[in-house]
Here is the input.
Amino acid sequence: MKIITPEESKLIDSLLQSKFGIDSLILMENAARDTLELLSKITNNEWNKYNFLIFSGTGNNGGDGIALARHISSLSPNLKVFIVGDTNKTTKETQKNLEILSKIFENIFFIQETNEGTKIFNKDRTIKQELNLIYEYFSINTIIVDALVGVGVKGTLRNPIKEVVEIINNLKEKGAKVISIDVPSGLNLSLKKSEVLKSTIAVKADTTITFFSIKAGMFFKEVQNFLGDIVVSNLKIPRNVLESLVESNVFLLTEDYFVRYPEKDISGDKKKYGRVVFVGGSEKYTGALVLALKASTKTGAGYTIAITLGKYDSIIKSQLPEVISIPLPSKDRGFFSKEDINYIREIIKPDDVIVFGNGIGTREETKEFTLSFLEAFEDNVIVLDADGINNIASNKEFIKTLKNKEKLIITPHLREFERLSGQDNVEEDPFGKGQSFWKEMGINLVLKDNVMYFYSSDGEIWISNLNKSNLAKGGSGDILAGLIGGNVAFTKDIKRGVLLSFFMLGKASTKAQEKYLTSSPSPTDIINEL
Here is the structure.
């Protein structure tokens, strides 16, 4: 599913009108109908059992709420509608819906900021200066619809909307269910993480029904407590038409992208499903390589092969009998060096996928080995992970000299990426800073944060927040590298292999979280659930 920015959302709205003649009032009506369908599921069509409070602003987002109120008024007697803001600034579409609603429904209240503070009016008569009046309409079966402001909000909310947002959140704490239309009011939507996190005051929805597609910023873990469950509405417009209107190359990986792991042909030979070769391990770090190998054996790759130092060969063979372990001739040396290249050439085949760097160490000899290795095997798909990345961090220009950069997959976490790219404060804008490095280098980049970013050499960017648990623990990156190597060997497709690995890691970490009752399962727990 494409991820669109607020600006692209507005562009779609405009193009639907100019290109297809779909009036804004029709889109508003479709938004109301789709939200009504959502509410019918929540209430099980038992409308009389619930009290409905609809808070609408004066923009088009508010018009969606007012159109929805017209439908609910025919289904439930327990409805109150609050128009929040200066009605002199109401958009013409929202004003039209308000005029219609006013003729058939009486319980409409106006909340405005005056010189004496925020007041509530009904037919221009002051009812009460305090917004506490709203609490009188509350019951345990209250459903609140937030249609205050849409995707265009910038900066901090001001009164009266700010006060209303605080009241909505207070009512939620008391047990009300909150449904936000398009976006929780007050939430800044951006692909820049630091901008999204400025949303300190916003509606905390139980469900957000958003239009056209997932919006930028909605995938960040830090805003999930504002969004609740996300439902995407096409506004009765075919999906292919919507996606043709914007040229976004940014996609969200959803659970329905892979219903299940791709099946093997029952008559297929193991040679058909590829070989993945791991080069790693050192005197200090053998566990990282073992974790990566274990993860790879959970994929569909036909062969998982380890090339490691002679003195650690027995560790792999004892723990992973399903892995073909090939020791280097030098049994006593605790690190890789350039002299090993020729021996490794005899093992690796042209179609092999290579995973390089897990536990390999950062000695000067190993740094030289890393550069020589990348040059020697640049015709192979290489997953460069962990110390493999650290070993080229001081020489990123070297990447540009490789002939087949589109076959290189670099998989740093944020700190490794800062060292490699030379950029600071990447956590403020991981998407943007990853994108600039990717464009400069022409590689495949997997950037690991609490969400995963994949910048594909074919020009697409994919984002995954499928992992529900906290993966900030040593070893989780090794698991991902092993999965990517095995899945790329199996599928013979870099993008499909990486996305399949995101999917597997997300599902397994969620299962481990539920099974072991922890928000941060161990790497071994995750591997057991693959």
